[in-house]
Amino acid sequence: MKLFERNRTRGSLILPVIPVRDTVLLPGMGIQMASEKPIGIQAVLEARDHAQNRLFFCHAKPEAPPDFKPEAVYEVGTIGQIIHLQQNREGHVRILVQGLERARIQQFTSLTIPLRAQIKPLEENLEITDEVAALMRLLREEFLEYARSAGGVPPKVKETVEQTDSPLVLFSSILHHLPLPTATKAALLALENPREYLSRLGEELKAEQEVLSLRQEITARVKRRMEQSQKEYVLQEQLKEIQRQLGKDVDDPSGLKDLEERLKAKVLPDEVRTKAERELDRLKKLQPLSPEAGVLRTYLEWIVDIPWTERTTDSKDIRRAQEILDEDHYDLVKVKERILEFIAVRQLSEEGRGPILCFVGPPGTGKTSLGRSLARALGRNFVRMSLGGVRDEAEIRGHRKTYVAALPGKIIQTMKKAGSINPVFLLDEIDKMSSDFRGDPASALLEVLDPEQNHAFVDHYLEVPYDLSHVMFVTTANSLHTIPYPLRDRMEIIEVSGYSDVEKFHIAVNHLIPRQQKENGLDWAAITFRREAVYHVIHHYTLESGVRELDRTIGRIMRKIATEVVEKKVHPEKEGRPFSKVITAKAVERYLGPPRIPRNTRPLEPRVGLAYGLAWTELGGRLLPVEAVSFEGRGDLILTGSLGDVMKESAFAGLSFLKAHARSFNLNDEVFSRRDIHIHVPEGAIPKDGPSAGITLTAAMLSVLTGIPPRHDVAITGEITLTGRILPVGGIKEKVLAAHRHDIPSVLLPKENEKDLADVPRKVRQKLSFVFVESLAEALAILFPEAQFTLRT
C-alpha cells in the first residue's frame, strides 16, 4: 500500500511528518521553508519518493524541547503539497509547499527519521448558519479595514476575502496575514467548529487592530516631534543669519561661551576643574536642544554657582561680639561664653576646625535665633536648613544627575545660598528626622558633621568632593533621646534651659515689646507696660519654658491697641495729638479677658495619696501630680496615665521597698496581700516616662497605705533603688523653674544633684528652699514629718 493512499476502513492516511516551530501552514495558503536538519530533509525526500510530494506539517508547542517529542506537538496540523523542491550540494533542501487540508494525528507509525504518522483529515462543517454568515461578514469588514491601515496585503488576498463563501477559506486567508504568534495560530487551526474558529479569529483581529492603532499613534507622535525639532533647527539657523546680518554675535546662542568663560574665571579645586572641563567638552559636542545638553548645562551652572574658595573674614573683636550677643539675647551665659571662646581661638589660630554645636532645650528659648546672632557676631553669612520631617537620604546627598529633574541635596543647595565656604549653617530640628525605605538621613548627616570626613563630602549630583570643614555647623533640638548616638557623639551639646519669670520679664521688656510695637505699626506711639502688667501676663496667660506664647500674647495686646488707634483716628503725623498708653494689670485683663492660668495649682491642704513630682519634657519642666488610692483586692498594683516602662518599674521598685520595710512603716504584712493600689498620673493622654518619679510614686503609695498625707508644699524628684538609695536625675534647672512657676516653696532633690543648682538663676534660688537626700528613708521622713516611722536613714 502506498503511503499517501487512504485507509478505506478508517478514512486515514500514513504520511511523512515534518515538525515546524516558527510557521504555521494553513489550508489553501503557500509558504516557503528551508531545512538543514536530517529530520526535515528526510521527510521531504520521503514525500518526494514515496508519497507523491505530500507530507504532514505538525506544529511544535512553545515549551517543546529542541529534540522531537511526540507529546510536544499539537495534534492538529495541515497536509501540504510540495510545489517546488531544491536541494544543494550539502544536502539541505528548500521547498515551496501548498496547504491542502487540516488533519489530526492518530498515532506515529515511525519515530525514527524519517518520521511517519497515521493521520485523519478533519471533517469540515460546510453548513453556513445565520450566525456563521454574520461572523463572516463582520470578519470581512474588519480585515479589509485592517488591510487598509496596515498595508502590505496583496490585492488577490483582499479579493478572495471579499468573494469567498467558504468559512475555512476566509479563516485561512485572514489568519495567514495576521502577525500573530505561532502558538496562537496553531491553537486556532485546531478548532473544528466554524462558529468557534471565526469568533476567536475576530477577537484576535480586533486586538491586532488596537495594537496597530497604538503603533500608528506613536509613530505619528514621533514624526511630529521630529518635524518640530527640524522646524526649530531651521528657525535657529534663520535667526543666526538674521543676527549675522545685523552684526550681532551669533556664535553663542545657547550661552555656552558665557558659561565657559565663567568656568575659566572660577577658582576651583583641581579634581573639580577636571570634571567640569570634561563635562563641558561633552556639552560642546551635543545639539543645543538635546535633553542631555540641558542636564549638562544645569550641572555646570551648579559647579559655577557653588562657592568653592570664596569666604568671609571672621570678626575678631570679642567686645563687639559680646555686645551683639547681649543685644539679641538675655542671659544664656554658657552659650555666649562658648561663642567668645571660638572667637578667641580664631585670633590665635586661623586654621582651627569649626565647632559643631547643638543647642538643646524647650521650644521658644531662642535656639534658632542664637544661630543668627552667632553669625552676626562672627561677621559670617547665615543660612538655615530645616530637618523637621526629612526622611529621604537623597534630601541630604542629592539625586544622581541621571535622574530626571535631579538636583543637589539640601546641603549643597544651602551652601549656594550662603555664597561662602565658611557660613554659620543652622541645621534646625535635628531631632525631628525619621527614616523609611528611602534611607536614613541621620546616617547621611554623619559625614556632614564629622570633622574627619566633611572636608571631602560627596553629593550624589556633583560627584566630586566638597569641603565643608570651614563651615560652623549649629544644630537645634528639643530632646537628645531621638538623635542617634553616633550623630550625637559628633556634636558639642549646649543646653538652652527654660527661662525663669525674672528672665522672661527682662526678655519681654527689652526685646518682645519693642518688636511687637514695631511690627504692629505703633513704634511712633508712647506705650508703656507697667511691671505688674508684664508679670500678670507671664503668670496668668502663659505657662511655658520659653517665651513664644508670651510673644504672641503681647502681640495680641498690641493689635488691640492698634485697633483703638484706628478707631480714634489718631495719626502719627498729626501734631498736637500724641498717642500714649500705659498698660496695667487691669488693662491686660481688658484686652485678653479673664486670667486663663491660675497661679497656684496645688491644694491648700495636704491630701492622702497625693504627692507632687517634677518632670522634664521636650517642652521644659512641669509639675507632675501623682494620685493613689487603695481598696480591698488581691494585692495588685494598677498603673494608669500613659506611663512608660521605666516609670512603671519605678512604681514596682517603690512597692517592693515598702513591702520589705513594712514593719518600719507600722504596716501589717496582710495589707499588701488584701488591698490593691491604683496609681494614676493625670493628663492621661500625654505619655510619661523616666526614672525621676521614683520618690513621688513611693510617697503616694505609702500615704494611702498609712492614711497619712505627704507634705503638699514640697515638689519631689529623684530615682530610687530597691535598697533605698537615691540616684541623681537630669533636667534640674527646668524642674526647679517648674516648681517656682507653681509657687511650691520647697524642692526635694538627690544629694548628687546639689551641684546642678548653680545653673538655676540666683533670684529663683533665693525664693525656694532645697532639701537634699541620699536615701529613701530620709526623703520619706521629710515628706511625712508627723509619722512615727522607725526606718533608719
From TrEMBL:
Keywords attached to this entry: ATP-binding, Cytoplasm, Hydrolase, Nucleotide-binding, Protease, Serine protease, Stress response
The Lon N-terminal domain, residue ranges: 15-209
UniProt subcellular location: Cytoplasm
InterPro entries according to UniProt: AAA+_ATPase (IPR003593), ATPase_AAA_core (IPR003959), Lon_bac (IPR027543), Lon_bac/euk-typ (IPR004815), Lon_lid (IPR054594), Lon_proteolytic (IPR008269), Lon_Prtase (IPR027065), Lon_prtase_N (IPR003111)
BP GO annotations: cellular response to heat; protein quality control for misfolded or incompletely synthesized proteins
Gene3D superfamilies linked to this entry: 1.10.8.60, 1.20.5.5270, 1.20.58.1480, 3.30.230.10, LON domain-like (2.30.130.40), P-loop containing nucleotide triphosphate hydrolases (3.40.50.300)
Stimuli inducing this protein: By heat shock.
Catalytic machinery residues: S692, K735
Keyword Protease set for record: yes
Pfam families associated with the record: AAA, Lon_C, Lon_lid, LON_substr_bdg
UniProt-listed Enzyme Commission number(s): 3.4.21.53
Single GO MF annotation: ATP-dependent peptidase activity
Binding site for ATP: G361, P362, P363, G364, T365, G366, K367, T368
GO CC annotation terms, alphabetical: cytoplasm
Uppermost EC category: hydrolase
Task performed by this protein: ATP-dependent serine protease that mediates the selective degradation of mutant and abnormal proteins as well as certain short-lived regulatory proteins. Required for cellular homeostasis and for survival from DNA damage and developmental changes induced by stress. Degrades polypeptides processively to yield small peptide fragments that are 5 to 10 amino acids long. Binds to DNA in a double-stranded, site-specific manner.
Recorded family membership: Belongs to the peptidase S16 family.
NCBIfam families in the record: lon
Protein name (record): Lon protease
